[in-house]
Automatic annotation (TrEMBL):
Residues in DUF2383 domain copies: 4-111
Gene source species: Simiduia curdlanivorans
Protein name per UniProt: PA2169 family four-helix-bundle protein
Signal sequence annotation: none
InterPro entries: CHP02284 (IPR011971), DUF2383 (IPR019052), Ferritin-like (IPR012347)
Pfam families the record matches: DUF2383
Gene3D superfamilies: 1.20.1260.10
Lineage: Bacteria, Pseudomonadati, Pseudomonadota, Gammaproteobacteria, Cellvibrionales
Length: 143
């Protein structure tokens, strides 16, 4: 198990959770608010599952953020301010965060030989894949 991998995943999950919480305050559609809240819950669950591995490798919980996701959040705010459909802008950018999260999970899965960590990564990957697919469908519906 690689400390950098688990920390990178946690940072992306933290930033993604923050971005969804931010987007909840920015969208007008109550259905989107419910979806975004479910995405926050999925990330909280993933963090609960992964934090013990960060503690095993670093001796402490990872609390950082991903600057890539934070930059995407700022970009989404700018684009939404200029858009005729700000809700779609947030959906589009959050779907990109889902892509980034899946990439980090796949990278960690490919680099680990620790069976318990691999099992947890597969479980988290499955949960995040569902989030990704949901956001991708929303993106297609609102396009």
């Amino acid at each position: 198990m690689n400390a950098d991998n688990v920390n990178n995943i946690i940072k992306v999950l933290n930033s993604g959770k923050d971005f969804y919480q931010h987007a909840i305050d920015k969208v007008d559609n109550s259905g989107l608010v419910m979806v975004f809240r479910s995405m926050v819950d999925a990330r909280n669950n993933a963090l609960i599952k992964l934090q013990p591995f960060a503690q095993m490798t670093d001796g402490e919980r990872e609390a950082g953020d991903s600057w890539v996701v934070k930059a995407r959040e700022a970009y989404a705010d700018l684009r939404a301010a200029l858009s005729k459909d700000p809700d779609h802008t947030y959906i589009e950018q959050l779907e990109e965060v889902e892509d980034k999260t899946l990439v980090e999970l796949k990278t960690a899965l490919n680099k680990t030989s620790e069976p318990l960590y691999a099992a947890v990564l597969k479980e988290v990957h499955s949960d995040i894949k569902l989030c990704h697919d949901r956001m991708l469908n929303l993106q297609k519906i609102t396009a």
